[in-house]
Each structure stands twice: as C-alpha cells, then as structure tokens.
C-alpha cells in the first residue's frame, strides 16, 4: 500500500527525498541486498546524459495545422545524482522547437494556413529540475537490470529565444512529467528512451492557453564512479531453542567447579614461582677471537689473516696482558691420535701468525683441548683455535 501511494505521489507532484535504510527484524537479522540499501556518499552515483528527438505541439489551435507541421526537434543535456537506487534528481537544459497554428501570440509571421489561422514557429530553452523514481527498484528491490523504468516529474523556466514575428520576453513557469526507459549496456553506459509531456504557462505561446508538447527523445548516459550500491551484511541471529536438562546442568556446574579448582592451583604455583630466588648463571668467558678451519686442515685462510692482523695490533697495545691460544678438533671424525696432532697444529698456526705480525712470544701461550668448543650442537664448529686472555 505504501509503495502504491508513493508511486502516485511521484507522478503528480514533487516528492521529498526519503532515506532508504531497511531495519532488521528483532527476531532474526539477515542480509538481503535487494532491499537493505545503504545510502552512498554525495560524490557517488552521478551521471550525465545527452539526448535528442522530436516534440509534437498540443497548443490551443495547433490541431488546425497538419500533423507533420507540428513536429519539431528537441535536444537535452542533463546531470543526474541518485541518492538511493529508488530516488534521484536530474538537472538539465533542453532546447525545444515549437511548431503549430495560432490566431495570435508568439512565433507568428505573415504566413497563414487558411483564412483564420497563422503558421506558428518559435524556439525555447528550458532549464528544469526533475525528481526521478526507479519503479523497478521500488517494487522489486534493487539489483543490476537490463531495463529500468524511471518515472519523473519536474518544473523549470522555459524562455523563448527565437521565432517568427515578435517574441514576448516573459518569465514563464513550466511543469513536466514523463517515463525514462533506461537500457543498461555495461557498468558505465546506458541508452535511454524518454517519453515526456510538458505544460507551460500561457505567456510562452501568448495564445491565452497553456502551451503543451509531447516529446520522444533517444539518448546515452554515462555513469561516473562510484556507480554501485552496497548492502549491509547483517549476521543471522538464530533463535534459542530448548534448554539443558537438570542432569546436563549439574554436569556443567561440576565442570565449572573443577576448572575453578585448577585455576586456584595454578595461581598458587605462579605465586611460588614469583617468590623463588633467582638463580645466578655463571657464564664462561668467551674467547677474544675464534679462527675456524676446514675439516682435517690447519691452514689459515686469507680472511683469517686479516682478522689476526687486527688482533695482533690490539695485543701489542696491551703489553701487560698475556693470551692463551687453544687448538680444538671435532671428536666426531678422525682417530684420536690424528685429532691431537691437528689441535696442536691449529694452535701453532695462529701463534706463528701473531708473532709474524709483531706480537712478543712472551705474551703468548699455546695449548690444546679435547673438549667441545661448540655450544650450538654443530660439531663442525669444533674445528677451530681460540685466543683468550690468560687468567
């Protein structure tokens, strides 16, 4: 009933701009994009249309002219703004050629159709504002359609700009209504068939009667971004059915009590941990430098010599400190006798390199160790020699 009243009101007069926001049911909230429409921002859903066609004059004496003599061209340029899929506004300007017959009035020259009536011809520029309603979205819900029937009513100010004889310069008011048949081509483009009826004040034609014209126009519409409409996603709230039995309720209470007991126990353990004294961890001093070797090798590489030159410079600057060079070998590969020789050779290579870089032998001590040097579980890192301050 409400939809019918709305459609009738749209056809006969201007209507207000309603907000179309659907309310969710208290029993069950759900998403239905065809009806629950969110109003987009003001910058969204703008369109521009260009159209052209013919008009047919229906003035007071126009029936005295032949049918073909009452047809004239009409052109229009319009900008549309849609506030919802149902309601929009259109602002534009149209050019009308008006032809027919008259005894007196605007657009009359010397040419007579018969002994009584003159040929009438004049032109109008008609700026107008229309209120538009999409009937398909109103009655069937919003979705992208190939065809949309759009009913509109509007008003404007027709101004006579040219014609035969004298053209009266008056402020005129015009009303109009029509059906815009819109055919969607894609998201951006549509073509239109606009059927329109215009009624203008008597001062337009100057015949002592309202000027009237029936028009048919074909045009194209371009839709600027953003073009679509977003429906809200409302979660479904399922109704609560049934209830727990007494036995199930008692079981849940028992589980809750057990959970509370475990929580209390964990809180006691946490408090005990907080009150426990912190154990001090004594870390072994790390070596100053560690030189790594390839498997079964005691040869220094070029990068190692660069490091040892820097170490030698630091040792020479600290003449009161002695340093211990310790050779290591991994115990996972090779016999013990070979690894013992390899440890000694690795320490000697580092010793010889430091002495060659100017370190005093009195500051250096050599030894070997069959312990594991690596702390990360990779025995290949035991193939090394270290330099550490002597205690």
Could you walk me through the main structural features you see in this protein, from its secondary elements to its overall organization?
This protein has helices spanning 2-12, 135-140, 202-205, 246-275, 302-316, 336-356, and strands at residues 46-57, 71-82, 87-102, 108-112, 118-134, 147-156, 159-163, 174-184, 189-200, 211-223, 289-292, 323-327, 364-368, 384-389. With 391 residues, it is an alpha+beta fold. The strands form 2 sheets. Strands 1-2-3-5-6-8-9-10 form an 8-stranded antiparallel barrel. Strands 11-14-12-13 form a 4-stranded mixed sheet.
Strand content: 25-35%
Number of continuous helical runs: 6
CATH architecture of the largest domain: Beta Barrel
Which strand order spans the largest sheet, edge to edge or round the barrel? 1-2-3-5-6-8-9-10
For the biggest sheet, the summary is:
8 strands, antiparallel, barrel
- Rg on CA atoms, Å: 48 Å
The ordered string of helix (H) and strand (E) elements is: HEEEEEHEEEEHEHEHEHEE
Overall strand count = 14
Question: Within the CATH hierarchy, at the fold level, what is the topology of the largest domain?
Answer: Porin
Kindly name the structural category: alpha+beta
Share of helix among residues? 10-25%
Report mean pLDDT, rounded to a whole number: 83
User: Uncertain segments of ≥5 residues (pLDDT<50)?
Assistant: 1-8, 10-35
Distance between the termini: 101 Å
CATH class of the largest domain: Mainly Beta
Structurally, the number of domains stands at 2
User: What is the global morphology?
Assistant: elongated
